[in-house]
Amino acid sequence: MRHGKKFNHLSRKTAHRKSMLANMACSLIEHKRINTTVAKAKALKQFVEPIITKSKEDTTHNRRIAFSRLRQKEAVTELFREVAAKVGDRPGGYTRIIKLGNRLGDNADMAMIELVDYNEIYNADKPKKKATRRSRRGGSKPAAAAPVETKASNEEEE
Known about the structure:
Elements: H1 14-31, E1 33-37, H2 38-55, H3 60-70, H4 73-86, E2 95-102, E3 109-115, H5 126-157
Antiparallel strand pairs: 1-3, 2-3
């Protein structure tokens, strides 16, 4: 019976499960998205989001906590530099799980887990992109003003 068991053990012993989640978290930080099974993606989300929250405040204590969980110095460095800078204003929900269908070999439910701020397709920054397009259109207005200047120069020539 599994009374009081709050998380998925993923059919592994404790050491294997912790090592696997640490490796997957390092891969997620390095590549910004990984493909895995839905169960592992959900377990990884619970594993990595508190570490990302810790990375928002760059202290020695938080770096040591992150290193004890991730076990790779390069991943901790990238987490505290690039990832923390991108998610600094986000109050939570740093990862997104997108279901991909079933794997051909064993019919396992597959999913892609990714860091939310690194995907330009799903970001809600679409109005900002439209604003830049409008400014480009606004850039054509000085081009319209340029012929006016040429007309003034034409008048001077006459």
